[in-house]
Amino acid sequence: MSKFGVLIYPNFSLQEITCLTSVLAVWFGEKIDYIAAENREYLSEEGLRILPTKTVAEASAADYDCVILPGTVDPLPALFDGKLIDFLREGKDSGTVFAAISSAPLLLSKAGILDGKKFTAGYFMQMTDVFPFIEKQNFVHRGIVEDGNVITGIGLFFREFAEAVLRRFDYDIGGGFMRDRPEEYSEDELTFYWSDAEYEEFLEELKEYNYR
Q1: Which pTM does this prediction carry?
Q2: Residue 9 to residues 46, 72, 76, 81, 92: CA-CA distances in angstroms?
Q3: What is the DSSP letter of 27?
Q4: Does residue 206 sit within a domain?
């Protein structure tokens, strides 16, 4: 099993990473740490209230096989949070895989993790003129870009981003990851049954609710 951490910050996008995190947690039973600068409530861009499981003071990027960075409609609070940038910078030479989507590659650039690496991002290109730490010459206009220990993606391609990370860690996700066509399935294929053991387990759990 690999160790995964997700950075959270104000207005981060759950939608861009939950395809990845749900597969890690539900399909493969991975425990994911949700790491923030402070131990307080953060509001996602979808309006959900989220509490981190760790702070950057309690974690090190080097301790993770992969650190996932969601995008955000307002990257400036995270970009100018020294604690977050230091957390990333300290993992620069650790071998940790950094997976950043949408505007999040901006944080990797500031931390020096994208130095000399090809990358993509979903932020507005004027940012490459405003922030001198962005290596504009290495920006690649593609949906997903992998270079060494960095995986970057544009938010439109959240599914492909998830697939790139999962395949990097050799998870068996089949050949058509989340691309099935519902109209091509038969009635039998869309009818689900537990095994006898799973059904018995469910019935035992149901007793806790005094049902019947």
Answers
A1: 0.91
A2: 13, 8, 10, 9, 20
A3: I
A4: no
